[in-house]
Amino acid sequence: MAATINEFKRGWKVLLACFLGIGVSLVSLVYYSGGIWIKPWQEAFGWTRAEIGLGQGLSTLAIVLGAPFAGWLIDRFGLKKVATISLILYACCLYLISNMNGSLSIFYALCILLALLALPSTPLGFTRVVNAWFEKNRGLALGISLTSTGFGAFLIPKYLTPYVDNYGWEEGYFLLFVIVMIAVPFIFLLLKNEPASTAQQVEKDIPKTGLNLKSAIKTRLFWKIGLVFFFISVGIIGLIPSFIPLLQDAGLSASEAGSYAAILGLSVMLGRLLTGFLIDRFFAPYITAIVFLFVASGCLALGLGGIQFALWGAIALGFAIGAEVDLIGYYTVKYFGLKNYGSIYGAQYSIFSLGGIISSVLAGYIWDTTGNYDLALKIGAGLLIGAVVLVLTFPKFPTQIQD
User: Fold this and answer.
1) From CA 213, how far away is CA 398, in angstroms rounded?
2) Domain contains 306
3) Taking Cα atoms as reference points, which of 121, 113, 98 lies closest to residue 33?
């Protein structure tokens, strides 16, 4: 109990900075608002859902290629400077998107630029700081910091959906720009890269030991972890921005669809906190298996039973998004150490993001050819079950990680 109090007493400001940073990051504001723009862009520009999905796919491809380099930048220069610059440039890209004229080539270029500039201020960077400040309660601290995406997933669909419906998508994107710019000074003032050396005595594994990226990728375990989260990514990433149009296609109004998506956001928060709390106390692969079996059941229910299972589907999908990114960070530091966390996490995040490319385009293609997302939900459930089987083969965490 004393270790818990000490960790949170000395690290709460940093935890708050990470909470805010992740909350306004690409993976929160842009990702959870993705479904809001689909119908307005179809109506304004005549784009198909596959074309819109390709924009997200290109954005994710930029993340795949850029994540290891972004991780290296953070390992080399520290998160505070890198993330601050990243957030400002990311906000500028949001402003540019709000002024698009309907050219697909400009849209795709902005999607790529946005991803590259925003990448260092995603959980890739902020989870490294959390891992550096917390050890006894690492899972819970990661969960708390990433819970801010749940607030985004709750607030954005509930309030931004009707806002865009009333004032237009341009004003909606401009509002995202304003939110990021307001958050930047608070994040800069609160964020510290690592604890002072005296505080490090509280945590036994804070000294930066661990494998380098070259050594990590030679292990079978690195690729097992990558494959688990690749399956999860392909299975569910494309379903999240599709959730609002899925409900609207079934006859719900924008406000009703936004309310269900807000429930998904609440589930994101619950999923992150509960998963983080449990992995500090039980073997993390077992918790991972239970969580994603539940998510698979929600996908199957929605895919087979339709709109009457929207609540179950929202809760299940929220748990998936509430668990995956912090679990990648947790497994990275537990199996490979903190010394080269940014580079290794960046490589794992690239694999995860590659699955997101496939998922986004696949979901759009399935809707364009079948008129619904039922097949995408069923495929997602099957991939999640495959991830569960694989995660149960993970070994025990090493007690010491050699350089």
Assistant:
1) 17
2) yes
3) 98
Phi and psi for 337 in degrees, rounded to 5?
A: 90, 180
Residue 203: its pLDDT value, please?
Answer: 43
Tens-digit pLDDT profile for residues 320-332: 876 777 899 899 9
402 inside domain: no
- Per the domain annotation, does 257 fall within a domain? yes
Does residue 384 carry a pLDDT above 70? yes
Nearest to 359 by CA among 323, 383, 327, 329: 383
Tell whether the model's pLDDT for residue 148 goes beyond 90.
Answer: no
DSSP label at 396? Answer: P
Among 149, 200, 142, smallest CA distance to 331 is for 142
Q: How many CA atoms lie within 13 A of 313 on its CB side?
A: 29
CATH number at residue 94: 1.20.1250.20
Asked, for residue 63, whether it belongs to a domain, the answer is yes
CA atoms within 13 A on the CB side of 97: 27
